[in-house]
Automatic annotation (TrEMBL):
It comes from the Bacteria. Mg(2+) binds at S298, D360, D361. Signal peptide: none annotated. Its cofactor is [4Fe-4S] cluster; Mg(2+). This is Amidophosphoribosyltransferase. Pathway: Purine metabolism; IMP biosynthesis via de novo pathway; N(1)-(5-phospho-D-ribosyl)glycinamide from 5-phospho-alpha-D-ribose 1-diphosphate: step 1/2. The lineage of its organism: Bacteria, Pseudomonadati, Pseudomonadota, Alphaproteobacteria, Rhodospirillales. The gene is purF.
Length: 486
């Protein structure tokens, strides 16, 4: 049974990760390594589809990349010089084997494997239309909508069918797809989700983040542009830009939390951006204290920047147990509720008798923050101040991040003082929206034309969440097959 670790439910979940390669004799092995580097983007399931010139080969499973692709025998079966892979955290559809990507379908033109990072905001509306047309859905994921749109398109080439499908979908998406003669990479017109292009010898690679190129020794070439389709084939690389150019709206949470610190996203080092966020946070909300302590691991770079700017010592006052994952199976309810110590433990020697500034990346429901503050106080801290390296998360995300319903977001229900009281800190402060923008290289937020997608902080959605709006007035859901997730 796959269960979510109880103290991970207070973080925004990383969407998914995609990886594709064309023209390498060990394609599947490189995809497996790339997915390993992208594991942080999805820890519920992993899959790879390869093509050897005659046959598509597929292996998909629940759990981590290592659990599914750690054996040489599995990789050997995934023959071919082209392959696409996917790590999944479910934002739409349950964690079931039939939802594990890449999804594969036999088309009029041959096989198609498709992996998707993001979330379609009109998937349910499209799905209803497709079901009325007679399309038979096998999964509960929004990605299958794209496959059906490609299948029913009246255009002749794969590329034109793909463009036809993309013109009908709304939301956030970075896609990798494999056909019998090419690997495609696609980024949505606003560039909400990241995707980059790399090269290894004569092979071309697509990946959600640059850290996935590093692990296989590939060279980073460039970011795939918003609205761009990159086609990797025997002829080399070709770029198609079928959409009207629009201002980019990359998800700003990539810099706060989602991307790995050693990645470079849109030309900006994630690690350096997080340190600058911490520096801005210190300038905006410094308080007298003895130590700056990160909530590991995501709070570490921001805490380093905060400590340097504030002139206060940085200490690892909380130690994280790296061997408790999201899929840890809790034996009993009593054990499950013993507290956050299964994942975090206070380093009493650095906290006792100290005024502590805790730095974390976000507060979602507030449950974990409250437990950590309590743990730090029990370790002897005389004062506990919390500083958050994002503005208050007051709105739900519909673009591939698993945020709770708005009424469950702490910042949507309380002001900062109310939140501080609830989590038990002496003071609480968040970085301002302009401070966040400054930290990632902008003079501030342009409210007329925001440079990033920041809807979870501002409610300014770059794409209308059609399904969410319709759900308010239409409670009818498609009947879905229940399935054991073993």
């Amino acid at each position: 049974m796959l269960t979510t670790h109880p103290f991970d439910d207070d973080h925004l979940r990383e969407e998914c990760g995609v990886f594709g390669i064309f023209g390498h004799p060990e394609a599947a092995a490189h995809v497996a390594l790339g997915l390993h580097a992208l594991q942080h983007r999805g820890q519920e399931a992993a899959g790879i589809v390869s093509y050897d010139g005659t046959t598509f080969h597929n292996h998909r499973g629940l759990g981590h990349v290592e659990d599914n692709f750690g054996s040489e025998s599995v990789i050997r079966k995934l023959k071919g010089s082209m392959a696409v892979g996917h790590v999944r955290y479910s934002t739409t559809g349950e964690t079931l084997l039939r939802n594990v990507q890449p999804l594969f379908a036999e088309m009029e033109f041959g096989g198609l494997a498709l992996g998707h990072n993001g979330n379609l905001t009109n998937a349910m509306a499209l799905r209803r239309q497709l079901v009325r047309r007679g399309c038979l859905f096998q999964s509960t994921t929004d990605t299958e909508v794209i496959i059906h749109l490609i299948a029913i398109s009246l255009y002749s080439t794969v590329e034109d069918r793909l463009i036809d499908a993309l013109r009908q979908i709304e939301g956030a998406y970075s896609l990798v797809a494999a056909t019998t003669d090419a690997v495609f990479g696609v980024r949505d017109p606003l560039g909400i989700r990241p995707l980059c292009l790399g090269r290894l010898d004569k092979a071309w690679i697509l990946a959600s983040e640059s850290c996935a190129l590093d692990i296989i020794g590939a060279e980073f070439v460039r970011d795939v542009e918003p609205g761009e389709i990159v086609v990797l084939s025997a002829e080399g690389i070709r770029s198609v830009k079928p959409f009207t150019k629009r201002p980019s709206r990359l998800c700003i949470f990539e810099y706060i939390y989602f991307a790995r610190p050693d990645s470079v996203v849109e030309g900006t080092s994630v690690y350096e951006a997080r340190k600058r966020i911490g520096s801005e946070l210190a300038r905006e909300s410094q308080v007298d204290a003895d130590v700056v302590v990160p909530v590991p691991d995501s709070g570490v770079p921001a805490a380093i920047g905060f400590a340097a700017e504030a002139g206060i010592p940085f200490e690892l006052g909380i130690i994280r147990n790296h061997y408790v994952g999201r899929t840890f199976i809790q034996p009993t309810d009593s054990v499950r509720h013993t507290g956050v110590k299964m994942k975090h433990n206070a380093n009493r020697a650095t906290l006792a008798g100290k005024r502590v500034i805790l730095v974390d990346d976000s507060i979602v429901r507030g449950t974990t923050s409250r437990k950590i503050v309590e743990m730090v106080r029990q370790a002897g801290a005389t004062e506990v101040h919390m500083r958050i390296s994002s503005p208050p998360t007051t709105y739900s995300c519909y673009f591939g991040i698993d945020t709770p319903e708005r009424e469950k977001l702490l910042a949507a229900r309380y002001d900062v003082d109310g939140m501080a009281k609830l989590i038990g800190v002496d003071s609480l402060a968040f970085i301002s929206i302009d401070g966040l923008y400054r930290a990632v290289g902008e003079p501030g937020r342009n409210s007329a034309e925001p440079q990033f997608c920041d809807a979870c902080f501002t409610g300014d959605y770059p794409v209308e969440p059609t399904d969410y709006i319709n759900a308010k007035t239409d409670t009818k859901q498609l009947s879905l097959l229940a399935e054991d997730s073993h």
